[in-house]
Amino acid sequence: MNANTPRALAQRCAEQMFQQDTCAQAMGMHIDAVDAGYAQVSMTVGPQMLNGHQTCHGGQLFSLADTAFAYACNSQGLAAVASGCSIDFVRPALAGDRLTASAAVRHQGKATGLYDVEIVNQRGKTVAWFRGRAHRLGHRILGDQA
Q: Is 49 in contact with 56 (CB distance < 8 Å)?
């Protein structure tokens, strides 16, 4: 792959961020795919992620979606953070479920962006919808390397 393509930049940014993302690592998340304005992150629901109803805790789902959102909104090499997010839970996730969060840009301006994330289970059923608003910080993820 050409090192100067948008996809290659997105992959380098995601790798750099993941090295320091101890939360995603601790939750067993994996980056499945990344491209300019897009990221797919997955994890398996473990017993430590269950709430009192024995379904995946909403905070765990939010963290998965937020992580995919983070890699998508930083994929163009410009550092960005969330300025606001919301999530709608559609169906429960259970212990052992393999969840995949796919984040895609809907609009990216000079300083702010809007991203949608869908979380699906291993059967392709939607578990949650997440919408994130991003704010760019004015510096690059990779410093002057990008």
A: yes
pTM of the model: 0.95
Question: Where do runs of H (alpha helix) occur along the chain?
Answer: 6-20, 22-26, 58-73
Burial (0-12, 13-18, 19+ Cβ within 10 Å), 79 = middle
- Residue 93: how many other CB atoms lie within 10 Å: 27
Element (H, E) at 32: strand 30-35
- Per the listing, tokens 């939607």 go with 126
pLDDT of 117 strictly over 70: yes
pLDDT, tens digit, for every residue of 54-68? 999 999 999 999 999
| 53-65 b/e (C-beta count within 10 Å ≥ 16 → b) | eebbbeebbbbbb
Tokens encoding 86:
């919301």
d(CA 138, CA 98): 36
